[in-house]
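quick one before i forget lol
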Amino acid sequence: MNVESRLPARVLAIEDDPILAAHLGEHLGRCGFSVALRHDGDEGLALACREDFDLILMDIMLPTRSGLDVLAELRRARRVPVILMSALGAEQDRIAGFSQGADDYLPKPFSMGEMVVRIEAILRRVAYERSPPQPCIGDSLLHFDDARTDVQHGHQWAALTTTEYRLLELLWQHKEEVLSKPFLYQHVLRRGYSQHDRSLDMHVSNIRRKLAAIGYVACRLTSVWAKGYLLTCLDA
């Protein structure tokens, strides 16, 4: 979380297990978040529609209404980021959650540390999306165009696909930080990571080739063995 924020980020946690809910509220509070707790789907949905939250942490298996139903109705009125939690672990639940607009998925059991890291990553992404991209420091400029989902260097467009644009934008947001393949699969490709799936490597290769084709050399996208990918900028 950005320590320079004027107010603490507001998190709504919707969890029917009272012990886990108490742990969530206590840990998030210690980490500087303002936390509201609800224990069923109807109460959580009503509060989420009535008040403004920076992020919602929600179990899938809830009394009165499932988390997936709450998410589907919430998306008709709000664009607040949502992290789903579930002990089910089924791929179909993850697919259903992402297809209905979930931003991330936490399989139970999970550590409080991992939960906070994921919340902070989403809040950083939201803050980044609300501000215009800043050019990387170096001898050249790269301009992002969200409407076109492409980047421009000089007078040339890179002709990125939508997925390539999302991937480059996320790496740009986290310059000088290694992003793991599971993280990139979830946030860009919207599916779980498999070590036999080479889709991400293909997209990275295409980005390198297309940036080189328009003469952009101020940043370098490298593979970090056994970890993920790193975007490094000259003079950053």
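fyi The chain has eight helices and eleven strands.
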